[in-house]
């Protein structure tokens, strides 16, 4: 057994945290090591562009978010910010715990999961290179 396996045994399987409405879970461009599953409440994921906020998605009970960077290596930055829309409780999953869980998955299923994640990541990268003003334009 290696040192990383020993540290994973000491690491709690999952932790939870509560956030008040308006509280920031993480900010765009920050480094992170956690994915989240919503236990109660709702969060909004958004882009911060100069003096503007561009809403991307609202997640509710049972949904996972913040997981994309977990598969991209330790040097990945968050591509968006996230805040609680109402009192919210999340289950936090560390990158090391998620990768340890992934090691136990059937190799074919693991390949499918990683392929889908890589495709989504490429699409996010392409979208990040385009102008997002159209997302908030009212068409006038």
Q: Might you state the CATH topology name?
A: Jelly Rolls
Q: Give the fraction of residues assigned to helices.
A: 25-40%
Largest sheet: 4 strands, antiparallel
Total count of strands: 8
SSE pattern:
HEEEEEEEEHH
Short description:
With 140 residues, the chain is α+β, with helices and mostly antiparallel strands. The protein has one domain (8-132): Jelly Rolls (Sandwich). The protein has 3 helices and 8 strands.
Question: What characteristics describe this protein?
Answer:
28% helix; globular; alpha+beta; 140 residues; 4-stranded antiparallel β-sheet; Jelly Rolls; 3 helices; 8 strands; disordered C terminus; single chain
Describe the structure.
By secondary structure, the chain is α+β, with helices and mostly antiparallel strands. The protein has helices spanning 3-10, 95-103, 107-128, and strands at residues 15-19, 24-26, 34-40, 43-49, 52-59, 64-65, 81-84, 88-94. The strands form 2 sheets. It has a 4-stranded antiparallel β-sheet with strand order 1-8-3-6. A 4-stranded antiparallel β-sheet has the order 2-7-4-5, with no helix packed on it. Mean pLDDT is 81; it is low at 130-140.
């Amino acid at each position: 057994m290696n040192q990383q396996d020993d540290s994973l045994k000491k690491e709690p399987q999952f932790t939870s945290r509560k956030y008040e409405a308006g509280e920031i879970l993480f900010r765009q461009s920050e480094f992170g090591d956690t994915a989240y599953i919503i236990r109660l409440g709702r969060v909004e994921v958004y882009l911060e562009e100069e003096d503007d906020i561009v809403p991307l998605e609202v997640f509710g009970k049972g949904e996972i978010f913040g997981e994309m960077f977990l598969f991209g290596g330790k040097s990945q930055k968050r591509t968006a910010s996230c805040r609680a829309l109402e009192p919210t409780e999340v289950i936090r999953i560390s990158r090391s715990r998620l990768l340890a869980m992934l090691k136990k998955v059937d190799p074919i299923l693991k390949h499918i999961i990683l392929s889908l994640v890589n495709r989504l990541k490429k699409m996010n990268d392409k979208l990040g290179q385009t102008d997002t003003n159209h997302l908030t334009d009212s068409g006038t």
